[in-house]
Amino acid sequence: DVQLVESGGGLVQAGGSLRLSCAASGIPVDDYVIGWFRQVPGKEREGVACMSTSDGTTYYADSVKGRFTISNDNAKKTNYLQMNSLKPEDTAVYYCAADDPKPTVVACQGYLEVWGQGTLVTVSS
Question: Is 103 helix (H, G, I), strand (E, B) or coil?
Fold first, then answer.
């Protein structure tokens, strides 16, 4: 049974940094797509950063490009989202999700099969 567990959220001051982790278990293959999404009550879910574990291809939303970096430790089956230069508008519940291989731009539209429980990131001004 495939499960994803996020961690690393918390309270940080604007301009600061935070690293989120997504630990995967039960995935029977090495090649898949995985990404990070965020949601604020009353707003649509937004794809933030996604990648392919097979070739390292990445996709970033324009709002985070140059500030966030997605990476994967294949041996540990753990994905990371490094968030720098955080802004108050980055405040949201962040979720990781995964699925069978597909283009990363498609993955970041949110059409993924397995989702984690989410971790809250709060950026103060």
Answer: coil
